[in-house]
Design a protein that fits this description.
523 residues; mainly beta; Immunoglobulin-like; 5 domains; five-stranded mixed sheet; five-stranded antiparallel sheet; disordered N terminus
Length: 523
Amino acid sequence: MRKLMAAAVGTALALGATTLAAVPAAQAAGAPLKSAVWTDVHDGKVFAAFNLLDDGVRPEDISLHIRRRGSDAVLASVKLQGTEACAPTSDCWDSTYLTGPLSLPGLGGYTVDILAKEGTAEERVRRDRGEIQYGLDAHMVLTPDHKWLSYDTPQVTVNGTLLAEDPDTHETKPFAGVSVSGGLPTDSAGHFSAQATATEFTPSPTLAFETDTTRQQITIPFHKQDLKLAVATPTGTVTAPYGSYVPVKGKLTRIADDGTEKPVGLHGISVGGGRLPLTANDGTFSGSVGAGPAGPVTVQPDPFFYFNAPPKHTFQLQGATSVFTSVKGAVDKYRKVTFTGKLGTTTGAASPGVKLPLHIQYSADGRTWSEAGGFTAEYGVEFSRSSTRKADADKAGYWRLVSGTTTLVSPSFKLGRKGTQLFNDDVTPEPVRKGATITAKGGLLQQSGTSWRAFGGQTVRVYFKAATRGATWQRLGTAVTRTDGTFRRTFTAKQDGTWQIRFVDAPATHYAVSGREDYVDVR
């Protein structure tokens, strides 16, 4: 506890010729002084209060130099009063002493330097260790620039004016150069300002401003706004099987401070136990949520401190059982597996827009299944989607569709075609002279059980891509395979480029195949 030593209240410490000296520089010897100075006002007079926080320092060894901020000119040098109360055997640590009453050149704030053992070889100096707020009856006028905080105005500036009575002239004037709230300075007109910000935990903040001799606070009220929720879909009763997804669309707006209706962007919307993407900048929202058990489902915006209790929209969920009303799997000549079909329900029909996630699965033996892609199908709408996995080139495999909850499984389809391959495909001669004949040749085989045999009577295509920037593949001609599967076709060599032979006119029972790319230099 601080022990206040009484000051002698007598003749004021006036500005004298001997006080207009330059402030001494801080000495390097010894640890920096930790003691501090502030203002004390009583009986219509201003004093400097000193708190002793340094070991090995006696209060009678302390001098206080008072000056204007930014100037080294010492306007007053004062000593502490009542130091005899500190016994020689005591360190008097944390004791407080007053100077005599001060007389300074005008109302305002002054900085104070502390000197211990001034003028001796052991002198220690600590600049700017306190402030003298030279004025009487200090008081503030606080004015916020908006009457409340809200969604539209989450931050308000509080402007303040600090006034005080000049101790010498007794005029009430702006209290300039004084620190408010530990460092907020007043300007020449006594003005200062601070920001009040609404937060979720403190929507209506209280700002307190204080000087050494006065304290005042202001609470900025918070104005909550009303929300308006307009749900376009769903409404009424929605039929949706368990595991399906229900589309939800609407718009969220608010009643702004000026009474107009404005959108609420980037706000959360919950639907039953699910959530939608945040609202767009125009307040609209769109998404889908999983259908759970039958019963009422509530759509509502997230509660937030800016708004009053959020409005709600309720629709009724009616359950159903999913079925495939049609489904078919097929594989094309490029080994791409595609499913077509349509989803339905056993009773009634699912509401428009309701969708179900489906997975494409593959199995080599019809027993162990692996994922091969997926998509979302809308009930009552024909779908056509392909697998991310190609069919095996040399054997048939099993394929099926399964719902995300595995409560719906399609029949399995055994899909496959006969494999084909080109052999000895080549373009000769190479290099070749420009204008000379060049021959594309080779052979075509088809799979037959575990072996391969000639595939005659089939059309193969010959493609060429010039060795020029931006060139694309061009079909130059075709050839028909002989009984032994071989083929030959001649062309005129015109320019450098790459050749390739392709079997793409495969029947529905066979896969297509492409040969190697063969670069030919034309000279």
